[in-house]
Amino acid sequence: MTDDETVQDAGFDDWLDAAENGGAYYLECPEGHGSLPPRRVCPDCGATELAERELPDTGEIETFTVTHVPTPAFEDDAPYATAIANFGPVRITGQVVGIDLEAIENGLEVTIDVSVSETTDERVVAFEPAEQ
């Protein structure tokens, strides 16, 4: 590999691109189970027929944790909050941005976005508080 080559995470990078451009989506099987790409099989029922569906505009934080002592992979990002947000058909894990860490609470309505890790310069899923 040369320095000019960029490593791609097939399917997930495409999903990040879509989320970054306001077109986040999830995969739905014929039974109505939702999942995120990359995926070829429904993790709930094993169906292989998966269709892209538009992700709801907002989700709700179900749980979160604030990290003050990170692993080396996120040392420049600390402190930061990681949350699981429910977007209806899918639950998504991401970093909460654009809000004081002390103001984050379960039930907070968020939108999905993409931010960049200060440590690695890699893109990460981010949640921003939805405008009230």
From TrEMBL:
Residues 52-112 form the ChsH2 C-terminal OB-fold domain. InterPro entries: ChsH2_C, NA-bd_OB-fold, Thioester_dehydratase-like. This is Nucleic acid-binding protein. It comes from Natronobacterium lacisalsi AJ5.
